Amino acid sequence: MRSPFYFHHTYVYRLECFRTVPSLFIVEIPMRLLALAAFAMGVAAMAAAQTSANWSYQGKTGALDWGKLDPAYRVCAQGHEQSPIDIRGARLNKALQPIEFHYIAGPVTLGNDGNTIVAHVDPGSYIVAGGVRYELIEYSFHHPSESTVKGKLSDMEIHLLHRSADGKLAVVAIRLVEDIGNPNATLATLWAHLPRTAGATQKVTEMVNAGGLLPADRGYWTYMGSLSTPPCTEGVRWFVFEQELGLSRDQLRAFEAIFRINTRGLQDPHGRRIEANE
Question: How far is the C-alpha of 9 from the C-alpha of 12, rounded, in Å?
């Protein structure tokens, strides 16, 4: 799953005075120092974001070497809660509540970041899981699926990335399977605007509701994992739907023509507990 972005604001304070009063200079100096420090921190953060190492799914910058590309990616190789994993041996936990989906329709912007297609959504859509509200940030697509069930891959997978008010992340994963001549209506709207080159974006002005990407049966498996792309941040709550969603052969081929493979390999579960709500 992709890493969410944060934006920084710089505040400038100005102190004007018309008389030479020593106490004012005492106040003015630390305020200037604070402003300079804030500016320096902002520049450093921007520089760090701009100098993060490029990564991909194959070759010298592929998934097997992510941990070597940048110190910020070290957990990709050294973490013990990495995603994706093979779903097997799940334990039924009847205390797990259904996920509440509160998605609203709206325009989206599709972006091709060179590794996948990302749908950026307007604020307002959210889920409630385990009593926690998580806002929908974006969703992305992978071919073939990243999650497997008892070793079996699906044709594609969608990751809906959410963030809570205190910064916790949750991913809802939907596995897609080819259903020959039966296109998914929501994908049909999005696929008409697929940006085919890295760096390109397309605005989808039609009203799109991410709820159209959810299966009818909302039973799920859940475990603690990570973002499945650098920096591979851990502490991410994963919800993988048990039921697959269909897409047509033409829809599958349209995505495959842009990204033949954009999937991270399975990670060691390290004894993690996988639970099912039904």
Answer: 10
Length of the chain, in residues: 278
Query: Which domains, ranges and CATH numbers included, belong to the chain?
Result: 1-51 (no CATH), 59-276 (3.10.200.10)
Confidence of residue 180 (pLDDT cuts 50, 70, 90): confident
Tokens of 238: 């994963």
Confidence band for 34, pLDDT divided at 50, 70 and 90 = very low
Q: Look at phi and psi of residue 124 and say left if phi exceeds 0, alpha if psi is from -120 to 50, else beta.
A: left
The DSSP secondary-structure symbol of 13 reads -
User: Strand pairing partners for 222?
Assistant: 239, 275
> What are the φ and ψ backbone dihedral angles of 252, each rounded to 5 degrees?
-65, -45
Residue 34 contacts residue 71 (beta carbons within 8 Å) = no
* CA angle centred on 4, ends 59 and 145, rounded to 5°: 50
Least confident of 28-37, 171-180, 213-222, 262-271: 28-37
- The answer, yes or no, to whether residue 74 has pLDDT greater than 60, is yes
- One-letter amino acid of 250: D
φ, ψ dihedrals at 132, nearest 5°: -110, 135
| Alpha carbon distance 168, 204 (integer Å) | 28
